[in-house]
Amino acid sequence: MKQLIECVPNFSEGRDMNIIKQITNEIEAVDGVKLLDVDPGKATNRTVVTLVGTPDEVIEAAFRAVKKASQLIDMSKHKGEHPRMGATDVCPLVPVANISMEEVVKYAHKLAERIGKELSIPVYCYESAAKLPERRNLANCRSGEYEGLPAKLKKPEWKPDFGPAEFNAKAGATAVGARDFLVAYNINLNTTSTRRANAIAFDVREKGRVKRDGDPVTGKKVLDEKGNPVYIPGTLKAVKAIGWFIEEYGIAQISMNLTNISITPVHVAFEEVCNKANERGIRVTGSELVGLVPKKTLIDAGKYFLAKQQRSLGVSEAEIIKIAVKSLGLDDLKPFNPKEKVIEYLLEDNADKKLVNMNLTEFANETASESPAPGGGSISAYVAALGVSLGTMVANLSSHKRGWDDKWEYFSEWAEKGQAIKEELLYLVDEDTNAFNKIMDAFGLPNSSDADKKARKQAIEDATKYAIEIPFRVMKKSYEAMEVIEAMAEKGNPNSVTDAGVGGLCARTAVIGAFLNVKINGQGLEDKKFFDKIMKEAISIEAKARKKEEDILKIVESKIA
Fold first, then answer.
1. pLDDT per residue over 85-98, tens digit each?
2. Per the residue annotation, which of 16, 82, 527, 551 is the catalytic one?
3. What pTM, to 2 d.p., does this model score?
4. Does the annotation count 267 as an active-site position?
5. What are phi and psi of 37, to 5 degrees?
6. Can 527 be counted among the known catalytic residues?
């Protein structure tokens, strides 16, 4: 699964669009990165840029942008309403998909080190990337702003984490961080009262509301020993919220910033606001996601609401997201298109060229054409995907069977396993063709000089290994599919037992078909140790698959006899 991170650099220029464009051009020049948003502000004289992509590529794009900003922006002449200390003021990295915060922190330190070393810019690391506890808070790192840097850099306690402890008059200093994904989320109410909306916001936000003596609204504020108001915490952690009235929609909303969606996800915030609104005689009519979100945000919400309905979670991604949209009322005020709001969908390129996005006739025609790909490897992966889909179908039908309500979670778990296997097999349909293309590309490399011959030979060897690994992965996943299928043949809805049987036949065919590809692709490989190791396991998987097919068919035959 592809790792994705988001980077949100803030540049201290919001008025000269020529400078901003030169900076964003550096980002767009890096393959594997997509520029999602450019938001300049004249009053703040600051531009917030959002880019997303694979980690190494995002780091490269961010560095290039920071470098260009240091060349074009002169902080000695900068004026703006927003606090700032550098040409690139802050540069946070955010995990989006298939990557942990710990991994993102390493990338943040890698970027910070390069900025400090190659550009001679002092760099402070903040939030999760902070090397010192007092530097977690960005405001502390930026204290004194640009004008205070000469004196600040002389203090031992403010030695930069990376780069020189010397004042860079033109570029200033930069803060590089790693933080969780922030979701801007508004919840719609059936009221026009800002005061009522604020009351609900105070109920749920982490900060809560001011504590008062006597009457909770009109009573005297309770102060601490320093004279500051004492607050009664709200019910949701990592949530900021206020109530407001939106003229455009003619309703009041709870406007929320979910600053850590691993602590308080969107669906949890929605449910809690529903509960608190109901206590005050107000109804939630829907909600609104502002900006982009990781796919996981909607997947988690959809699965949460499916589980509340005691419905199987092992349905397609599209169905899960549909449930999330309807349950959260994301289409209450205007149509909600996941393709325009989910980061991963916006990053999909050339989706129409994928084999798995063809219709059945197109796929068959492409296979039957004179082109050597797709071939047996892709077909094996697709046959297995069909087989596990049948097993997953039996699991989903069984979870809804009348009288089996107490078993829905058991079948849901099997259906989720089936869906995960199906998704990887569909990926391998195209990846088998890509592996073939890698070999063809390697054979097409220059072959004149000794250096060329050596590089070409190594490229062919590497591509051949990959062309062995892909069908081997198909074998393993196809066998995993048989375990789902066998469980459903044995325990699933008896009316669908033959569907499980057909699924078993498909999966066994895929194992044997993929094994043929492993063997033929290994013929030209020089690394015999690598090939022998894979062959040993592949032979075992094929034998187990043949036995598993027999077991599945025995179960099927016994139930239809």
1. 999 999 999 999 89
2. 82
3. 0.81
4. no
5. -155, 145
6. no
